[in-house]
Specification:
The complex is a heterodimer of chains A (about 725) and B (about 280). With about 725 residues, chain A is of the alpha/beta class. In chain A, the strands form four sheets. In chain A, strands 1, 2, 3, 6, 11, 12 and 13 form a seven-stranded mixed β-sheet that branches. In chain A, strands 8-9-7-10 form a four-stranded mixed β-sheet. A two-stranded antiparallel sheet of chain A has the order 4-5. Chain B has helices at about 5-35, 55-60, 70-105, 110-120, 130-135, 145-170, 170-180, 185-195, 200-215, 215-220, 230-235, 245-275. The longest helix of chain B has about 35 residues, at about 70-105. Classes of the chains: A alpha/beta (about 725), B mainly alpha (about 280). Chains A and B meet through helix 2, strand 2, helix 3, helix 9 and helix 19 of A and helix 1, helix 3, helix 4, helix 5 and helix 6 of B.
């Protein structure tokens, strides 16, 4: 089989002289994995003469960039991605099938299986990613082989009062819970391939994990960063994680990696998901033969050895494990051994639908709101709400007629003649100059704001499923307004989310104005020393990008280790689990956004206060008016013309403030603190790309704000008249 | 004016000091992460670092790519170019449009103002898909020019809104006097109106710059060359699928924030005056 590969490489090398266009390779690798990829592609260039341009992307933007770029012919030749999204990529025609001489036997069977769609293999397996147990060998001389042994160890190793835990892992993440589910014989899909949540195994696995937390053998609300810190500090004896964690273990920690234990009461090993990272060839690559050669090169032989030794990846090719270097590498061998039990994560669209219901159920149990035996039904209900069948097609012709009529009506309205009867030129003498002044801005806005706006509106009339759009008229709106079986008191009801959004906007604007105005009044006094310094310091939150501060505030609100609960503890108060109840999660979001937003209002108020003539206050004081009377009669009325436009803008911005909701509370608990814009985002990018449904949400957001704008416009007009 | 009592001034100082502490506390946390050798989450409420290292800053500022090119320098240049160009283009388009909306009579004027506010109301999330197609048709994909145009037009409604309000407060008499002295309408605009609008122009420029400087989703999606990524894209590279490189993230966050803070400090007098002048009738 190697002879064919060699011949292939030679053929490609020969044809390389014909053109010098580099291959484009996109990835989201960091650190050692990126270094290894650079070295491997350098070797490819040295071997074949074909240059490779690497593009490293932020993971969050990566999938979206691919789905935009490849259909427009602006994408890569090869890209590296998890196999999980393969079905979606395939449905959108982003990936090409592997070359005819693809040799399945070169790779482990379950990695090839993970890359199959309808019997055809897409992508060249690079590495495995699955979970295993990291054990601190100083604390745990003999790793547990069963859950019975695990529980015994946890009892002796944990001391919550001292912040010591037997076990630590991201317990609120279904990817980490799956091994427990499978170990308790809980199926994830039924015989028809549909997701299945309400099973005895589901309840048992959730009860087991809940017990670990209730006994305080593992901490609450664990993130990857917290797990790493605890393990590195020796305060967690064992950690469940994947190979990506090996590179960040402190040198002082002696550890080994073993397979996850077997569940004693079922006799079934805990099986983690097997993720396969693969090199996919773009369906639109103009250098397909070379692209396949590059993808194949990266997956076997020398490149595989580089990825193993430099990138610390677990190679997917069989031959890698025959080398002495790999045999002696205990980390690689341990993960390979642990992954024998791994269950390939299905690449189906059904798998993509599982994450949100499972996250909801898992967190509901861990936070104590739901019993383990009821969590399956909860997940099933959420699953059915999110899985929308394609609505019936609608006839677009009446809609086109309506659009045409609206366009004509709008034009007539804009150009309408008042009763005066003056000629057009007499009524608009500045028309020529106005056109000259407005044209550049109008052109830019038309192309880059209004046209995308119109397209966004139009999307709301379509149903999108795996790259296919079908016209459905108002079905999306009917679905939203009917609230899909959820009552108005439950998240996922449009009306609940609307109420949360309105509350969010009102509370924030009120706090911004009160705090901003209060500070402005304090800073107004010209005799105040250090005034400039105070003003500079108080403006800082405005200058920091909100997605940075959102992550900081989220860390500050952590239940056990966050700074805010630390301060509460210093004051002798009870710590708060901020994101487990609506009121506290909402308060955390408000605190973050108020911190971000008060400087704007403070600056507006400061400027307005400076514009008020001092003589008015002096006259009032001579007349004996009190401070409160002066504030109510002089300050407030004169502030209104300046504050009202700022309040209008501030409320619009707050209504659509996505970053804070998404990054601080993440919509917890159970979607309860999502606002309309974050809900629209979830439908577009986290629930199988239901763009039409998300666009309909956006249209409803737009209509609500339009109503608010009309109201405030009338308010402003009233103010001007007074 | 009566001199305020000592007690009152002490109270004001105390209140402002508390607010400054609340304001700075989260920022201190960022600084602590940027300076701590461990690349993880701190487990205490103490906002000051126990140990100090500059390794995170060194890696953020001085690392090289596969071709040995200085990454940070190129990304800083891309950000400065994009931020600066967005400011210039955005301000140029906004100031002329705002002046026309303030002074001239033409059909669609009322509707135009309303339309500007309306575009602020549609979530930007779903605009990305059509914007991508439009830029491709204009051959502006993978181009800083395309990015600048998107940023400039995104900030344009706000800028026009602010400047129009400001122009409304300028006395027409000044312009009429200039016309009497023989100035052309364009000369009036350039030599009389723009100088008077300097405070509002400063604030509007700052908003345009911030829009471009802080954004990363559009930049990551539209640009295909790592040496032309803007700094926020580089910052977001530290947030991976499985973990966040907190130390480098915090260091890069401070680097990204520093220029905006510097601009705020330099322009704070204009900020205070310019934001509100448009709302107060003279």
């Amino acid at each position: 089989m190697r002879g064919w590969a060699a011949l292939w490489v030679l053929a490609v090398a020969w044809s390389a002289h014909a053109a010098d266009v580099p291959l484009k390779l996109w990835h989201a690798y960091r650190g050692g994995e990126e270094t290894a990829l650079i070295q491997a592609t350098t070797r490819f260039t040295e071997t074949t003469g074909v240059k490779v341009d690497l593009l490293g992307l932020p993971y969050d933007a990566y999938a979206h960039k691919l789905t935009n770029a490849i259909p427009h012919g602006a994408g890569p030749d090869v890209f590296i991605f998890n196999h999980e999204r393969l079905r979606n990529f395939h449905a959108q025609h982003l990936v090409a099938a592997t070359a005819k001489d693809f040799a399945r036997a070169d790779y482990f069977a379950n990695t090839v299986e993970a890359l199959e769609v309808d019997g055809q293999v897409y992508g060249y397996p690079l590495s495995l990613k699955s979970l295993a147990l990291y054990v601190n060998t100083d604390l745990v001389p003999r790793p547990p082989e069963s859950t019975e042994e695990l529980l015994a160890l946890l009892r002796s190793l944990s001391n919550p009062a001292e912040g010591r835990f037997g076990l630590v892992y991201e317990s609120g993440d279904f990817y980490f819970h799956a091994p427990f589910l499978f170990g308790f014989n809980g199926p994830l899909f039924d015989d028809t391939g549909r997701a299945s949540f309400d099973t005895p195994g589901m309840a048992s696995s959730l009860a087991f994990v809940k017990r670990l937390q209730d006994e305080r053998w593992m901490p609450q609300e664990v993130s990857g960063a917290l797990a790493k810190t605890l393990f590195n500090d020796g305060r967690a004896a064992m950690r469940i994680s994947g190979p990506w964690s090996a590179g960040e273990i402190a040198p002082t920690v002696r550890y080994r990696v073993v397979a996850l234990p077997t569940v004693s009461e079922t006799g079934t090993p805990m099986k983690p998901f097997l993720g396969v990272e693969a090199a996919f060839v773009s369906a639109r690559s103009e250098q397909a033969a070379r692209a396949h050669a590059l993808a194949h090169f990266l997956s076997v032989g020398e490149a595989s050895r580089i990825r193993t030794s430099v990138g610390r990846q677990i190679p997917a090719d069989v031959a890698a494990y025959e080398t002495q270097e790999v045999k002696e590498d205990t980390l690689i061998s341990s993960f390979r051994e642990a992954s024998r039990n791994a269950t390939p994560m299905p690449n189906t669209l059904e798998m993509a639908r599982v994450w949100e219901p499972m996250k909801l159920a898992l967190r509901a149990v861990l936070q104590g709101g739901v019993k383990p035996e009821d969590a399956g039904a909860l997940a099933d209900r959420r699953y059915r709400a999110l899985h929308r069948e394609r609505p019936a097609d609608a006839n677009p012709i009446p809609w086109l007629g309506l659009a045409g009529a609206m366009a004509l009506g709008g034009t007539a309205y804009v150009l309408r003649r008042p009763a005066g009867g003056q000629s057009f030129r007499q009524r608009y003498p500045d028309l020529a100059r106005a056109a000259t002044y407005v044209a550049p801005a109008a052109a830019g806005l038309l192309v880059l704001v209004f046209i995308p706006f119109a397209v966004g509106l139009s999307l709301s009339l379509f149903h999108h499923d795996a790259g296919q759009y079908s016209f459905v008229g108002l079905a999306n709106f009917v679905d939203i307004l009917a609230s899909r079986g959820y009552s108005i008191r439950e998240p996922l009801s449009f009306y609940f989310t609307l109420a949360v959004t309105l509350l969010w906007a009102v509370v924030n604007v009120v706090l911004h104005v009160c705090i901003g105005l209060g500070l402005a009044l304090l800073l107004r006094d010209p005799l105040l020393k250090l005034r400039g310094m105070y003003r500079v310091l108080l403006i800082i939150p405005w200058a920091v990008p909100n997605y940075i501060t959102a992550l900081m505030w989220k860390g500050m609100f952590h239940r056990q280790f966050g700074a805010i609960n630390g301060l509460l503890a210093l004051l002798g108060l009870e710590p708060v689990s901020w994101f487990t109840r609506f009121s506290t999660a909402f308060a955390a979001n408000v605190a973050t956004n108020t911190w971000l937003g008060f400087p704007f209002m403070m600056v507006v108020a400061l400027g307005a206060l400076q514009s008020i003539p001092q003589e008015l206050y002096e006259a009032a004081e001579v007349d004996g008016a009190s401070r409160w009377t002066q504030f109510r009669r002089i300050t407030l009325p004169l502030l209104k013309p300046a504050m009202l436009p700022a309040v209008v803008l501030g409320s619009v911005w707050t209504f659509n403030m996505f970053n804070i909701i998404y990054l601080v509370s993440g919509g917890e608990p159970g979607g309860g603190t999502d606002i309309l814009v974050s809900e629209a985002f979830r439908w577009a990018f986290q629930r199988n790309e239901q763009y039409g449904f998300a666009a309909a949400y956006s249209v409803l957001i737009f209509l609500v704000l339009l109503g608010w704008s009309t109201f405030t416009k009338r308010l402003l007009r009233t103010e001007e008249t007074a | 004016m009566k001199k305020p009592s000592w007690l009152k001034m002490a109270g004001i100082h105390a209140g402002l000091s508390v607010m400054c502490m609340v304001t700075l506390y989260p920022v201190l946390w960022v600084v602590k992460m940027a300076l701590s050798p461990t690349d993880g989450m701190s487990l205490t409420a103490n906002p000051f670092p126990e140990a100090v290292t500059l390794d995170h800053f060194r890696e953020v500022l001085w690392s090289s790519d596969a071709q040995g090119r200085w990454v940070f320098g190129r990304q800083l240049m891309a950000s400065v170019i994009v931020g600066g160009a967005t400011t210039v283009v955005g301000l140029s388009l906004a100031v002329t449009a705002a002046y026309a909306l303030s002074r001239f009579r033409f059909p669609g004027k009322e509707g135009g103002m309303q339309a500007l506010l309306i575009t602020q109301m549609f979530p930007a999330t779903l605009m990305l898909v059509p914007i991508y197609s439009i830029l491709q048709k204009l051959r502006l994909l993978d181009s800083l020019t395309g990015l600048v145009l998107v940023y400039a037009t995104t900030a344009l409604p706000f800028c026009i809104w602010m400047l129009k309000g400001y122009f409304d407060t300028l006395p027409r008499e000044l312009e009429e006097a200039a016309v009497m002295d023989g100035a052309s309408p364009f000369q009036v605009f350039i030599h009389v109106v723009l100088p008077l609008a300097r405070p509002a122009l400063a604030v509007t420029a700052l908003f345009s710059f911030m829009t471009a400087w802080n954004e990363f989703v559009l930049a990551a999606t539209l640009i295909n060359d790592p040496t032309r990524f803007t700094l926020p894209v580089a910052l977001q590279r530290y947030v991976g699928e499985y973990k966040v490189e907190w130390g480098k993230f915090a260091a890069c966050a401070l680097v990204v924030s520093a220029p905006v803070m510097a601009l705020f400090f330099a322009l704070q007098k204009h900020l205070v005056g310019g934001l509100t002048a448009g709302g107060v009738k003279g």
